[in-house]
Write a structure and sequence with these properties.
Layout: E1 4-10, E2 16-17, E3 33-39, H1 75-80, E4 90-95, H2 101-114, E5 119-123, H3 128-137, E6 146-149, H4 153-162, E7 168-172, H5 189-206, E8 209-214, H6 227-231, E9 234-239, E10 246-254, E11 262-268, E12 271-274, H7 278-283, E13 293-300, E14 303-315, E15 323-326, H8 330-344, E16 351-357, H9 369-381, E17 389-391, E18 394-395, E19 401-402, H10 407-416, E20 421-425, E21 436-440, H11 443-451
Parallel strand pairs: 4-8, 4-9, 5-6, 5-7, 7-8, 13-17, 15-16, 17-20, 20-21
Antiparallel strand pairs: 1-2, 1-3, 9-10, 10-11, 11-12, 13-14, 14-16, 18-19
């Protein structure tokens, strides 16, 4: 019989220690070590104690064409998944409490069930009546989804194995599930790893599309061991601000599609609805020109999207001026301010600087450098950027404006939404749009363009 031993496992990184300490030595997190009982593997069961079975090998051309997909009919959800759910794959959906994870998955499996796909929804957090109430509120109570409430993995797998026609399963949530041969509590590193492994093994064996709901920590990361994200095929994060009704489903990992794809939804009393034109959503109302505002022609995965960048530069009364950023990297802002100071002679050193990306979207691509610089210069000089102008380009430390990828797609999206001019890098390939192009090669050319010659 296998002996047991006690160890203290960090709930943030999964590192194990023989005794408890206040801080994890591996990741530096405080008060994250939890006592867990682990079974020692007998020596006779190790790989050296006997011969394993032969593994079947095949060549790379075994499956022609693209992987088959289960399309939910929710275009934004399917886009984030890479075109639909792949049978035998595992998808992890994470997000803050109340952001809409359970809602979007209930809508997705209801659409699948209505199209003839056999689906099962297992809830470990809510009673059946609660899920049924939500389905009735969303108008999904007629969908032929089979519902169950259980947290014991042994019972869940026994139920799923008794069904021969299941094609999609939702587990809500993975942190509430447990295996009964481990003494640790549900949600701990050992339980999350073991339960996910059992579910994923079953899904791949039976060719079932598995959807897992995952809680997130206060830092916005999936709770539990980091290995959980490595075990699944696709990781989707639900993002959104409490003050906005809009939600963004972002793919950060996808073995069957592109990463950084997003789906945009609006939270309504009928659930999450797709946003047909995300660019118009993030632009807001722009009835008149105001200083400190620039429209950035960005890319989210394969989708071009226009976003409004807002900047406010004000005289500071503090010894150390304030820098506040929402929706962009604060280190990148510090770099752009330094380049404007050093290469164009603008004085931001004594100014408070506030930067915001409208609509609650988070922008990470370097192509936003030029739009941020344009908004900062516009606010500092109180010179509005003309209406109908989009801006994009990367700024180097020397002040040089460099071309970015997908320039033609950015311009076509801007032209489609009624913009008639673009401030952009020189020599953008494939730029066949009819917009008036104002090409800048150095940051001081941008300053002259906005503030006038001699600025």
């Amino acid at each position: 019989m296998a002996r047991t031993r006690k160890s203290y496992v960090c709930q943030s990184c999964g590192a194990a220690f023989p005794k408890w300490t206040g801080q994890c030595e591996a990741c530096g997190e405080w008060n994250s070590l939890v006592e867990e009982v682990q079974a020692e593997v007998p020596k006779g069961l190790s790989s050296k104690g006997g011969r394993g079975r032969k593994v079947a090998l095949t060549d790379l051309g075994g499956v022609p064409g693209d992987a088959p997909r289960l399309r939910t009919g929710i275009g934004e959800f399917d886009r984030a998944c890479g075109g639909g759910l792949v049978p035998g794959s595992a998808v992890l959906v994470g997000g803050d409490p109340g952001i809409g994870k359970s809602t979007i998955l209930l809508q997705a499996v209801s659409r699948l069930a209505a199209s003839g796909v056999n689906t099962v929804y297992i809830s470990g957090e809510e009673a059946s009546a609660q899920v049924q109430m939500r389905a009735g509120r969303l108008g999904l109570d007629k969908a032929p989804v089979r519902l169950g409430t259980e947290t014991n993995i042994r019972d869940i797998l026994a139920t799923l194995e008794s069904e021969t026609d299941i094609q999609a399963v939702v587990i809500d949530s993975i942190q509430t599930m447990f295996v009964d041969n481990l003494e640790s509590a549900p949600g701990t590193v050992s339980q999350v790893r073991a339960t996910a492994q059992e579910l994923i093994r079953f899904a791949k064996k039976r060719g079932i599309a598995l959807l897992l709901v995952g809680h997130v920590t206060k830092d916005g990361q999936i709770a539990g061991p980091r290995v959980l994200e490595h075990m699944v095929d696709t990781v989707l994060y639900f993002e959104g601000e409490r003050g906005h009704q809009f939600r963004i489903l972002r793919a950060v990992k996808n073995r069957f599609g592109g990463t950084d794809e997003i789906g945009v939804f609006e939270m309504t009393d009928r659930g999450l609805e797709e946003v047909a034109n995300p660019s118009a959503l993030f632009l807001g109302s722009r009835e008149e020109s105001v200083s400190g505002s620039a429209v950035f022609a960005g890319m989210e995965g394969s989708r071009p999207m226009l976003v409004e960048i807002q900047a406010l530069v004000a005289q500071s009364s503090l010894g150390t001026p304030r820098r506040a950023v929402v929706g962009w990297d604060s280190g990148r802002l510090a770099m752009i301010l330094a380049v404007l100071d050093a290469r164009s002679g603008l004085g931001f050193g004594a100014q408070d600087v506030y930067l915001n990306v409208a609509g609650g979207l988070r922008v990470s691509e370097p192509a936003a450098d030029l739009a941020v610089a344009a908004a900062l210069v516009s606010s500092l000089t109180d010179r509005p950027i003309p209406q109908g102008t989009v801006v994009f380009g990367e700024v180097s430390l020397s002040g040089e404006v460099r071309p970015v990828a997908h320039g033609a797609q950015r311009l076509r999206e801007a032209e489609k939404l009624g913009f008639d001019r673009a401030i952009m890098p020189a020599n953008v390939k494939g730029a066949d749009a009819k917009l008036k192009r104002m090409e800048v090669r150095h940051i001081h050319e941008l300053v002259e363009l906005i503030a006038g010659p001699g600025s």
